[in-house]
What we know:
This protein has 182 residues and is α+β, with helices and mostly antiparallel strands. The protein has two domains: 5-59; 75-174, Alpha-Beta Plaits, CATH 3.30.70.60. It has helices at 5-59, 61-74, 80-98, 130-142, and strands spanning 101-111, 118-128, 147-156, 164-174. A four-stranded antiparallel β-sheet has the order 1-2-4-3. Strand 3 and strand 4 form a beta hairpin. The N and C termini lie far apart (108 Å).
Amino acid sequence: MSKPPLDRQRWLLILTGVALALLLLDSLVLSPLTSAWQARSAEIARLRKLVAEGESTAARGERTRGLWQEMQGQALPKDPAKAEQDLLTAFDRWGRAGGVEVASIKPQWKRGQTSQYSLLECRVDVTGSLPALVRFLHEVEKSPLALRIDSLELNARDESGGKLSLGLLVSGLRLVPLEGRR
């Protein structure tokens, strides 16, 4: 009892039509929807990350403001003469504390990369023993002033290396632009 050929052909046509409909459904509906879903999921993940970073930044805001106020307090004074005097006095104090001889200090004002600050660049030459120079450098580094050691040169002053000379290029930050000098 086999089915008549027309019945079989009809079933084959129906199955072929269903298969074609499923293929069209997949290519026209399901694939684009899946792609859109994945794109939106990636966008949601990116936005969640941005929100988390923003919340983290907001949570650190008070601490960051406190650090910024501390940094502003450590900058050199706004008055250029006072800033130079403070830095020269500090080098003299550090030299005495380190037990070194300060041979020369040559200050020079420089413009900052933006108009929001200026730099007092000092070339400092000191002489002493290695332990004394280390103490001097430690005093400079632990200073609350906003200073940066840009370069350091160490040379022997005698054959045994007992007496050394230290050349420093130190920049001090002043949160005021350099006025009147071009």
